[in-house]
Amino acid sequence: MQETIDIARFTRDRQGAGAKKEGGRDAPSGPPSSRSFWNLKVAVIVDRNDDGERLIRELQRLRCDVHHEWPMPSQIPAQYDVVFCVLSPDLPQRLPWIPGEPASALVVIDPGAGMLDLNLLHNCAAHGVLHYPVTSRSVQSTLALARGHFLYERRLRGRIEKLDESLRTMRSVERAKSLLMRLKNVSEEEAYNYLRRQAMERRVTIGAVATAIIDSYELLG
Amino acid sequence: MTRSSNTSEPWRVGVLFSRTGFMAVIEETQLRGTLTAIEEINAGGGVNGRPLEPVVYDPGSEASAFGRYAKKLMVEDGVSTIFGCYTSSSRKAVLPVVERLNGLLWYPTLYEGFEFSPNVIYTGATPNQNSVELCRILMERYGTRFYFIGADYIYPRESNRIMRELIRNSGGTVVGESYVRMGASREEFLPVMRDVKRAQPDVIFSTVVGDGTVYLYQAYADLGLDPKVMPIASLTTTEAEIRAMGYDVGEGHITAAPYFQGVGNERNSSFVRDYKKRYGDDEPTNMCLEASYFQVNAFAKTLEQTNSMDTEILRASVMGSEFEAPQGDVAINPIWGHADLWTRIGRANRQGQFDLVYESPSCVLSDPYLLGYGRSLGQKNLELA
Q1: Nearest to B96 among A98, A167, A218 (CB)
Q2: DSSP string covering A42-104, please?
Q3: Which of A77, A87, A101 is nearest to A46 (CA)?
Q4: Do you find a cis peptide bond into A89, omega within 30 degrees of 0?
Q5: How many whole angstroms separate alpha carbon A41 and alpha carbon B88?
Q6: What is the reported pLDDT for B153?
Q7: CA-CA distance, A85 to A136, in Å (whole number)?
Q8: What is the rounded average pLDDT of the residues B205-230?
């Protein structure tokens, strides 16, 4: 039960009112910020009722590359930029990633019936919630925030990785620097400049130069 | 998060140690340490009248399974506190889960340091509590030429990086280095040991873990090498591994650890006695078991005060607190969330126990990023004074 929808079949006319109210411009050019949605790969895992249709149409109007799937697969696909998925009690188990390492931005859809389960929401570790009934405004703002949070988280994770790595590199640089100071009888400043120059000339990181110096010092005994 | 105090509903906690696969020898003892502490606490009436209820899974020595089970514990079982993990790769698999869902992992294993997470309490040793002193004593007693043998994953690579730095800074050299894959077979250690024999180091520094430890020491014994002249030194070979390889095979080799079964104090004597009563006279205790045991007690003592499993509240309360452990008095360092632990160096004897070669005068402040140990081994560490 999968289908990929041809974006070209849909025109702004089918959702025109919402878009005009919000952007005040024609959809094809769109407000500058909505360009970031263009060709975004979005999976939509909802029943195709009126709200489901409205959501799909709005995403297509935003020029997203929409892939619809229903009923909910046992494993939510991981190859999309954003996933819109109806909130079900077992959604956390259907997510193919572990919390904290999501493969895509996740927007859960609250159909609005029954008690809202905040704990379930927490366990999905979602980036946004969309409530029915669907409006153009709510889809755009949720999509923008979810994507933004997802990318921000990813940048932070990358930064932490980089910091961890740098911390280790710094120790090698320190060590190489003191080796150079002793062996070449130069100042700290000169030793550091030497490392930096070597790195630039060889087009490698300063950490790589430092490690090479330490290693060769060891080889020479 | 207010709970009525008259409920008798259990406090549910997660437990993740491998009972199967190549890490089972040591992780099984960590599971026992955890469950022993839980049983003792429950026998004493639980925490504020409520028993601890462990939810236990066996990740089968597979790192990614630790991540999946951590998710299952937090999402399906509604658990926020997890005791578990031996290898660094398994800890790193659990880390994103507890960080994103705001859980608390209690990690009872020595590791390579250089990590900090607001969602982990580390109760095993980091390099300043084992490697630094171990390196000094090895160089004093055996010589300056080291050969590294490790399992091929995060902990050995990182541990060796630090050890190499310590050795070099003190004028020693690393004359060889070999890595075997995790879960390697017995045969894979033979070429490594032949290379060792050829390189003639003064000391072999091993970061092999799991079943590989047994194969390594046995291969050493089979080649007729002499631990008095060229011992294998390790941060991970405990009484459990010595027992698995055979007492005669283990005799004479060196291990650095915060705890050995032979630690002489009343608390440890009763800990060892109770453990043997429960699991059998020939079942030794070890550092990983001890950390697993004392961290559950540290958790329970904290929970008694907070009466809440909320991660923020628990963590705030446990930071800086002091506990009585079988190894001696320890504390959870308020800066790092790592335990301040004892440094001990032991030599295995014919009875499978360790004779103490060195013991710190008190627990050593945790310094996971080695901020105070950049240079050489020459200066005596201040916190030991």
Answers
A1: A98
A2: EEEES--SHHHHHHHHHHHHTT-EEEEE-SPPSS---SSSEEEEE--TTHHHH-SS-TT--SS
A3: A87
A4: no
A5: 35
A6: 85
A7: 17
A8: 93
Contacts of B371 (CB under 8 A, 6+ apart): none
pLDDT confidence of residue B6: 60
Residues A141 and A168 in one domain: no
Buried b (16+ CB within 10 A) or exposed e, A184-210: eeeeeeebbebbeebbeeeeeebbebb
Closest CA to B180 of B165, B169, B193: B193
Range of the structural domain that residue A117 is part of: 2-158
Give the span between the Cα atoms of B185 and B292, in whole angstroms: 28
Of A98, A119, A123, the CB nearest to B67: A98
Judge whether A106 and A129 are in contact, CB under 8 Å: no
Residues A119 and A182 in one domain: no
> What percent of the residues of chain B are helix, what percent strand, and what percent coil, each to the nearest 5?
40, 20, 40
Residues A142, A213 within the same domain:
no
Q: How far is A45 from chain B (nearest CA, A)?
A: 21
Between B99 and A26, the more confident residue is: B99
Q: How far apart are CA B69 and CA B210, in angstroms?
A: 21
Chain centroid, CA B73 distance in Å:
23
Mutate to test the interface with B, among A90, A94, A97, A98 (most CBs of B within 10 A): A98
Structurally, chain A folds into a number of domains equal to 2
Find residue A85's DSSP bridge partners.
A45, A108
Residue with tokens 């040591």: B26
Complete domains list, chain B, with CATH:
11-125+265-340 (3.40.50.2300), 128-262+343-384 (3.40.50.2300)
